[in-house]
Amino acid sequence: MNSLAVVVAFILLPYYLPDSPITQDVNKLPEEAQTWYKQGQLTSINGYKVFSIYKKCSNPKVVNPPTFVLIHGFPSSSYDYHKVLDGLLSKGDVFMHDHIGFGFSDKPVQNFTYSLTEAADNCLATWEMFGIKKAHVVSHDMGDSILTEILARRHRSMSCDNDSITFTNGGMKYSMINFRIGQRMMSSSLGPYFSMVNSKLGLSRVFSSQLKSVWGPNSDHDEMMKEIALITALNDYKGGTKIMHKLIYYLWDRAHFEFRWFSALSEIDVPVRFIWSDSDAVSPMSIPRFFRSFVPGAKFEVVQDAGHFYMLEKPKEWLLKITNIL
How far apart (Å, rounded) are the C-alpha atoms in residues 142 and 168? Predict the structure, then answer.
């Protein structure tokens, strides 16, 4: 078989393979994911079921506990924060949710753009439903851009005020992102095809190698692979793997709306922090350095020897830095 025939066969093969079964049963997920699911609830937000966790401070000695709101990134879920939840609860209340298309939330195939503006709409609607009026907001990865979209609306309509803002390891400056191969493939015109290949041929495991590349250089290998397996399992749940090309649409929003978000950041009037890992392969240190020049009064903290998923790699250190705002 010549090389052209191999290419043609590879292109056509997915069209003739049956769809892989979609896991809709939480009880078939890894035990850790089931435990996380039991801590939260599904609520209808703008016509879709959104998974959220809202817990009150566990320390009775804390008077008028603050609220921490956590915003997750791509391609993961609120589970990113499972190692730091108990520690945060000793300091205050904690709220987090899975964006639509991620984790345990609904993953619509049609009539949903998966834009950052939609994600911001649903963040605000979710916070309003749970009565969150004031919070220390901590974002990560894609969540950084969702938060900047929310901040850009701050003087027009906000259901939640901010005690402080903390950005961590997000591609907030589009031209400075070190895109992974998987990101480039999924965000290209061939994205729908690659989503189909992933779901039918099991190539979503290739995505695991992409995630490995953004962990810190000295990470515990077994622990890293365990976390990546959970991220992958929660992507597969409810057919999320089939819509990866839709989920990554947010990258185009970053390129298109940066000017609006940067303007909002230059006018911010609450404490702002950029906490960044020095060994992040996808969102390098050049990104927070870029913001030094025009975000008034912002504090910049560098995390040594950590990668993109700082809260998973060094949860104790993450907790100390995040709660240092109190």
Answer: 10
**Distance between CA 79 and CA 59 in Å, rounded?**
22
Report residue 94 as tokens.
């904690």
What φ, ψ does residue 55 adopt, rounded to 5°? -125, 145
In the three-class reduction of DSSP (H, G, I as helix; E, B as strand; rest coil), residue 95 is classed as strand
Residue range 236-286, pLDDT digits in tens: 899 888 888 888 888 888 888 888 888 888 888 889 999 999 999 999 999
Q: Which of 17-26, 58-67, 216-225 has the lowest mean pLDDT?
A: 17-26
Sheet holding 134-140, edge to edge: 41-45, 48-55, 93-97, 67-71, 134-140, 161-168, 272-277, 299-303
**pLDDT by residue (tens digit) across 103-133?**
999 999 888 889 999 999 999 999 999 999 8
pTM of the model: 0.89
Task: Give the right CATH number for 24-178+253-323 from 3.10.450.50, 3.40.50.150, 3.40.50.1820, 3.75.10.10.
Answer: 3.40.50.1820
Residue-wise burial string across 178-198, b where 16 or more C-beta atoms lie within 10 A, e elsewhere? eebebbebbbeeebeebbbbb
Q: Is the peptide bond before 75 cis (omega within 30 degrees of 0)?
A: yes
Instruction: Report the Cα 244 to chain-centroid distance in Å.
Output: 13
Q: Distance between CA atoms of 273 and 140, rounded to whole angstroms?
A: 12
Q: Is 230 exposed, middle or buried (0-12, 13-18, 19+ CB in 10 A)?
A: buried
- 3-state percent helix, strand, coil for the chain, nearest multiple of 5: 45, 15, 40
> How far is 275 from 269, CA to CA, in rounded Å?
18
Classify burial at 12, counting beta carbons within 10 Å of its beta carbon; exposed 0-12, middle 13-18, buried 19 or more.
exposed
